[in-house]
Design a protein that fits this description.
With 83 residues, this protein is mainly α. 82% of the residues lie in helices and 0% in strands. It is globular.
């Protein structure tokens, strides 16, 4: 999958979350982030944004323990950008 396709799937996940289609949103977030990780630079700030948005979604559906490592990864990506 090309990074642009992964980014499109991520956008779909955000839309699904917005209309409370949480099952599909979760699956699409995981798939899009997984593919984006495989096809882009591990320090890509877009990946950091994707991880942060997915973490926010997880908190919204009361899965805080799953959100914490994603927030830490996003923070690490953004910190790398400032070096």
């Amino acid at each position: 999958m090309h990074p642009a396709v992964a980014a499109t799937l991520y956008t779909k996940a955000r839309l699904e979350a917005g209309v409370h289609d949480f099952g599909n949103a979760d699956a699409d977030f995981r798939e899009s982030i997984g593919w984006y990780e495989k096809t882009s630079d591990p320090h890509d700030p877009r990946l950091g944004s994707m991880l942060r948005t997915y973490a926010s979604f997880l908190k919204k559906v009361h899965r805080n323990s799953e959100a914490k490592p994603l927030e830490a990864r996003a923070k690490s990506i953004f910190a790398f950008q400032h070096h």
